[in-house]
Amino acid sequence: MHILVTNDDGILAPGISALAAALKPLGDVEVVAPESVQSGAAHAITFNAPLICERVSVDGAVFGWSVDGSPADCVKLGVHELCAKRPDLVVSGINAGANRGVDVIYSGTVAGAVEAAFIGIPSLAVSLEASGGFDFERAGAITRGIVSQALDVGIDPGTVLNVNIPHLGGRDPRGVKVVRQSTAPWTDRYDRRADPRGRPYFWLTDEGERGHSDPAETDLAALRAGYVTITPLQHDLTEYKQLDRLDRAWPRA
Amino acid sequence: MHILVTNDDGILAPGISALAAALKPLGDVEVVAPESVQSGAAHAITFNAPLICERVSVDGAVFGWSVDGSPADCVKLGVHELCAKRPDLVVSGINAGANRGVDVIYSGTVAGAVEAAFIGIPSLAVSLEASGGFDFERAGAITRGIVSQALDVGIDPGTVLNVNIPHLGGRDPRGVKVVRQSTAPWTDRYDRRADPRGRPYFWLTDEGERGHSDPAETDLAALRAGYVTITPLQHDLTEYKQLDRLDRAWPRA
Lengths: 253, 253
Known about the structure:
Two copies of one chain form a homodimer.
Chain A: E1 2-6, H1 14-23, E2 28-34, E3 51-58, E4 61-67, H2 71-82, E5 89-96, H3 103-106, H4 108-119, E6 123-128, H5 136-153, E7 160-165, E8 176-178, E9 190-194, E10 200-204, H6 219-224, E11 228-233, H7 240-249
Parallel strand pairs in A: 1-2, 1-5, 2-4, 5-6, 6-7, 8-11
Antiparallel strand pairs in A: 3-4, 7-11, 9-10
Helix pairs in contact in A: 1-5, 2-4
């Protein structure tokens, strides 16, 4: 099996080296990842500028391609130009920080996997909940188990499995839950500051917790309860209930 | 009514001035838009850096706030900090180029509207199909009509209406269709070029047409047939059919 690995924390992030190492027993692993940190890049793509690529070595061995673009750029360019052969699987991560609920819309990690789904390649996005530090080695071992199980169970080529691993703190996750995405909003707050010339600027703060009224079967609630969460994602955003209502209500010419 | 207007082509783009002018008869219009072109920015947000804002005047009159961030940043910051009062409606556009099918995932224009939906404010994203040139004034008049009708029909606060206007070429649209989003993929192709030192780089080309096998009721097909398309969008990406299947199939610990 040929596995393309990408991320949004950049090719030198510890999460992607842990992921690549963890997946090696499952097949040939190729890394194509952003040159720089792309957190919050969402599904940005680059078409007004060219993409520069470089081979990156770590400890004297070739680790992969860096691309001066987004995670979605890496997957698109990796599949069409850089990979030795068409990947059978794309895995994006391991992100430093969870991507659950509406995070999936902001997340570059998830976007890398969604881009693979556009192209028709089964994919997973993997994120590790923030805590004091990140134990990527253990998260990698958990990821290998999840990916193996996913391949046994089967991933529809148009589907992304969005995986979140709870912060471990030495403990084991309580288990695995297949759960839907929460839609609970962030409560945003900006720090208003003054620049050296007295003009205001703004900085998005660490936002508050969400989804405390969510039912137990969302990704937010299950991750908070200590489970590894798996949420299948698709990319038809149509609101079908509104579609029917609007279609009936819209004035005819 | 208080209307926040944003876009992804930047505050000085002709599409946003046409939009702001077209919506003035409907209420108080405030503009908060990116300082620079953000095409393809998708739902990127800025949290690792501050956001710098400036009042922008056009022809001697204050036009709005520019923000050195993405469309989603503009809506978030606009609603929470910059707007005189909480907007009743957010309209993003008029984008130079259509946003239908999977474009909605890449589009900064759509992301601005989706951010409003997160916050619970009804919103529309408006895009004008590319042709030889862009007749934003006529597109603005069409947009005003669509927004008025949408307010009559009612937009659920969690829903975005994604509106595409066909390229006009002096003709009228054939009508308005409420249609679902196509999921037909782009056929991507990269130009492989050599830099002045002989090293390869890549540039995403204008991609081919999509969705020729789509049924008539997608946004892609209806826009191509000359209709204004309206697609209600939501932001729960869960693939519910896969959710049930995976939940039954996933190995229990």
